[in-house]
Amino acid sequence: MDSAADRPPSREEEEPSYIDYETFVAPDFSPASFANTLVLSTNNANDTPLDLSTPLSRVLFDIQEIDSHIDLLTTRSAIPLLSHTKEQTEASGRIVSEVDGQIKSLNDSYQQLEKEVIQKHAEADEVKQVASRLWDTLRLGRAVGRCLQLGRQLEVQHAELAPGTKKEDHRILVRCTHTILALREILEHKGHGEEGQGLDRVDAIRALQDVVTVPIEKSVRETAERIIREFSMGSTAGSSTFAQSEEAKARTISALTTLYLLSPTALAKGEKWAPTWMLLALEVYLKTSLQSSIASLHRSLAALPTLDRTLAEVAARCQNIVALEIVLESTKAPAHPLLPNLATEKGLGNILQPLLGYLETGSLPSYFWRTMAGSLSTRVQEILNRGGVSARTLRTNRDTVASAIRECVVKGCQPPSTLAKKGEKTGNWDREVAVMLSSVVGNLGR
């Protein structure tokens, strides 16, 4: 039991105070209302000015009284307060000691966790990086090995096309082309995770491209272009046998396939792919035939005795163009390994359609005669403007020239005998005949 001296005095034992503590501790106490009441109680509301010294003194006295009361209570309750503080301090000490033990245990657990997990994770992450780099090295090594193997295969294949070989095998062109495309497929796919990633930084691959791939691709393309330039199926007189015609056809198809597949596949956004190399080679062939025919006809129109032989040559060139059209029409466009969506988009048609679209014509013989007619008109006018024997002879033999040109056009539009089908009717070439007659005979007058 606490003694009476140790216990804090009760409210009844405390000295009486004039301060109304109940007012100050009330929940609805308002300092402004209390101050207003105090001022009104010590002043007349009608006084001007108000005397604030009296209420201020009262407030100061009240504060002093409260301060004295607090000091008295603190003095009387010092021992209980100190005891309570001591108890709280001891309790806090016990809590701190318990917390220190828990913190030490937590630190020990963390160190154990760091040893078992974090360090092992760091080691595992290092192993992962090593494995990833080894995998990249292995992938790059495999890609390099495959490229070098394809390069060696390409060299062996191309060696069979060398001039010293016994017989040029046109099928090697297609095999070389597929090998080149296989190399191109690897080297052009350089994105992250693709087979060609990082190959451009390998010296062996750069040397392979400079020494093997690029020169051989150029050689293969030039060989294919040469085969197309030399394309000839003979005339209607049957100057070539069926076997020779089939061989020429097979050689041409191989050359066309080669140029079709080797055409550039790197396109700008929105650009449609076209067999550029094939179209250019065929255009060169047609232009060469046209230029030769126009030049020889120009000379023969100025010297009519040579006209029959020249027209026979022109008809033979046109027959070769007819034969070329037949070959193109009967040859299905090959599937492109690097453009798998090409067949899905428009189907694999024949390889004649891209050429007709490129030349903006309906048929190759029509293109041949119409283009020639467009150039001959000015050449005939030159002969007439020069005058002399050539001009007079040309005007005198107007009907003979017209008949010869008509026969030349009709004969030139007939397919070679080795490609002609029995019972097949030849097309109507009246428009081409009319265009040629208009360009030559039309300028001669009546």
UniProtKB/TrEMBL annotation:
GO cellular component: Golgi membrane; Golgi transport complex
Membrane topology listed for this record: Peripheral membrane protein
Subcellular location: Golgi apparatus membrane
Alphabetical GO biological process terms: intra-Golgi vesicle-mediated transport
Coiled-coil blocks: 96-130
Start and end residues of each Conserved oligomeric Golgi complex subunit 5 helical domain: 199-408
Keywords from the UniProt entry: Coiled coil, Golgi apparatus, Membrane
Superkingdom classification of source: Eukaryota
Keyword Coiled coil: yes
Primary location: Golgi
Residue span, Conserved oligomeric Golgi complex subunit 5 N-terminal domain: 22-154
Protein name: Conserved oligomeric Golgi complex subunit 5
